[in-house]
Amino acid sequence: MKSYDYGIVGNCTSAALITSQCSIEWLCLPFFDSPSLFAKVLDSKKGGFFTIEAVDVTEVKQAYITHTAILKTTFTTKQGAFEVNDYMPRFMAVRGGYYCPSELHRKIRVISGNPRIVVTLNASPNYALGPATYALKKDYIKIMSQAGEYNSFYLYSNLDAAKILNSEEIELDEYSYFLLSYHEKLENIDNDKIFLEYEKTKSYWLDWVQRTNYPPNFKEQISRSAITLKLLMYQRTGAVIAAPTTSFPEIIGGNRNWDYRFCWVRDAAMIIDTYIRIGHIESANGFIDFILNRMLLKHEDIRVMYGINGEEELTEIELDHLAGYEDSKPVRIGNDAYRQKQNDLYGELIETIYTYFVVNRRDHYQVNEEIWTMTRSLVNRVRDIWQKPDSGIWERREALQHYVHSKLMNWVAMDRAVKIAKYVNKTDHVESWSKLADEIKEDILANGWNEKLKSFTMYYGSEYYDASNLLMLHYGFLDKTDPRMVSTVEKSYQHLVKQGFTFRYIAEDEFGLPENAFIVCTFWMINALYLIGEERKARDMFENMQRCSNHLGLYSEDVEIATKRLIGNFPQGYSHLAYIQTILLLETDYDWSDASKDYSMKKNNL
Fold first, then answer.
1. Short-list 86, 205, 232, 207, CA closest to 575
2. What are the backbone dihedrals phi and psi of residue 549, each rounded to the nearest 5 degrees, phi first?
3. What topology does CATH give the domain 209-597?
4. 197, 234, 322, 364: least surrounded by Cβ within 10 Å?
5. Which sign, positive or negative, has the C-alpha torsion 508, 509, 513, 514?
6. Backbone angles phi, psi at 103, to 5 degrees
7. What pLDDT, in 10s, does the model give residues 1-54?
8. Which of 528, 493, 498 is nearest to 513 (CA)?
9. Burial 71-102 (b: 16+ CB within 10 A, else e)
10. What are the phi and psi torsion angles at 342 (to 5°)?
11. What residues does 118 pair with on adjacent strands?
12. pTM higher than the cut 0.90
């Protein structure tokens, strides 16, 4: 079965999903978390879409322009050929900062002959509460909501507006365009402006990729995943969203459908940690500032997740009027996971701060002082919570437990905090922080290990395997030769891997038994196998995983093991960051537990 037939375009303000047949079927404007304008992905009948179809088509090809976020769809017809370049403008503004407006461009170029198109503009604002109304103006088509809150959008084009609205055939000139904007434009829109912003956007991405560190044999894969992760970063605040979609189901026909258009501190920190290590320190600056703005005072704690503007309440609502992706209900907006306690996030965040300090080596002492204060505040939270139960990394909505992974990340928090203290010459903290790190480690070894199963388990006293425990190797909790670590990897492989894919866990939860594998867990398993010396198994699994990406090299959250189709929210940041980590490990033996080795990356052809 075919995997998700979508490419993503974006500019760090919002993002759109576009099919291989050149149909926009998911777009929220003006921002990632705004109500959708097109949502055919969540309701094939009334969700809305914006399609460019070729008349008498004989072939359609789609690919990204190399090392950019510009998606090119090429049509060959009986009358000629043309290409559509879809993108959202992003480039340096004349007065500094980035120009990344709430708009999408569709630039069309005739390659040969006299091809004809049919345009279908079927807008359905406010999560498809009702069809849009259209008003023909002198320079644009105005699109207005009828139901729900008032929203309006502006479509500019040099093609006949009446034919666009009536879906009539249009013969293309050499160059044509569509510019869909949330805002009415103040300047004249013509081919020259479209071409200029296209070239500026293309140059931005080419320059950005040039500054990325990568192994020579995987330049294309690293750059595509890195660009995809960049598209999940919100320019205005530095927040990093988990995915640009909501309610793509983990199981077709099931109810594990969640809104991922928010900033999970855990996911975002891990993405930013990876970004720092592949050469993009500027992306870290925005996220660090985002966290600093959430913890302005020493008594303020960090939350599990935030809205893209720092919102703390993300009330979960079900949209009953939408059928769901392939009839998978419910469709949800908001996410009640914001109410949970997930004690692991302190570890991911302090790990990222450690990498930021070591790799960045900035001389801006005022900023470093703020980060140091935040680090000490986070350490104080770890002291308070590490012995308490929580909901864990998998956000189980049932009784709180003493999850082993959460304890592991509390140890990571203290271990990295000690390294930060040494780095900034605040050694008076080293003794007490090291003592707490040792205490947490001893607690994990005493209570997280199940002698009967010969493995670390999901939570203290349980008999459930958990793929997140594979990260013990990633973070250097135990040596890769430690018998307990080797056994945990082997037992997890035996019980959690099915047809080459790794489940988070196989224990029944409040939604029943898991049926599909998590892509991020599969990459964790590949890494763990490699580290304990099972290189052949690791590389076989890696090749199997690579074959599951869609036609553009993109990954979702999950994979359906029987069909190998991608499912879950798409594209998923967690999956792409893990893909990068795995490539660096397999290609260079990169030690993710030691950020101080980072400056050797260039010398190692990274």
1. 232
2. -65, 160
3. Glycosyltransferase (1.50.10)
4. 364
5. negative
6. -155, 160
7. 457 999 999 999 999 999 999 999 999 999 999 999 999 999 999 999 999 999
8. 498
9. bbbbbbbebbbbbbbbbbbbbeeeeeeebbbb
10. -125, 95
11. 53, 169
12. yes
Q: Give the model confidence (pLDDT) of 525-563 as tens digits.
A: 999 999 999 999 999 999 999 999 999 999 999 999 999
Strand partners, 155: 141, 180
Lowest mean pLDDT among 157-161, 395-399, 500-504: 395-399
H/E element holding 121?
A: strand 116-122
Domain ranges within the chain, ordered by starting residue: 6-194, 209-597
Query: 174: Cβ–Cβ under 8 A, 6 or more apart, which residues?
Result: 109, 110
Per DSSP, helices labelled H in 424-512 are: 430-447, 471-474, 483-496
Q: Distances in Å between the alpha carbon of 383 and those of 380, 428, 458, 549?
A: 5, 17, 22, 42
Residue 219 — φ and ψ, nearest 5°?
A: -60, -45
Residues pairing with 82 in the sheet: 75, 110
Asked whether the beta carbons of 86 and 73 are under 8 A apart, the reply is yes
Q: Which two tokens stand for residue 43?
A: 């309701």
Residue 561 to residue 40: CA distance in whole angstroms: 25
Q: Find where tokens 């869609």 sit.
A: 550
The chain-wide mean pLDDT, for the chain, equals 94
Give strand ranges (E) for 393-477: 449-450, 455-456
Who's near 108: CB < 8 A, 6+ residues apart?
52, 82, 83, 84, 85, 117, 172, 175, 176, 177, 178
β-strand pairing of 152-157 with 175-181: antiparallel
What DSSP string describes 13-81? S-EEEEETTSEEEEEESSSTTSPEEE-GGG-TTTS-EEEEEETTEEEEEEEEPTTSS-EEEEEEESSEE
Using alpha carbons, select from 572, 570, 589, 227 the residue that is nearest to residue 219: 227
Rounded to whole angstroms, the Cα distance separating 434 from 423 reads 14
Give the position of tokens 């090392």: 67
Q: Which of 109, 122, 112, 86 is nearest to 158 (CA)?
A: 109
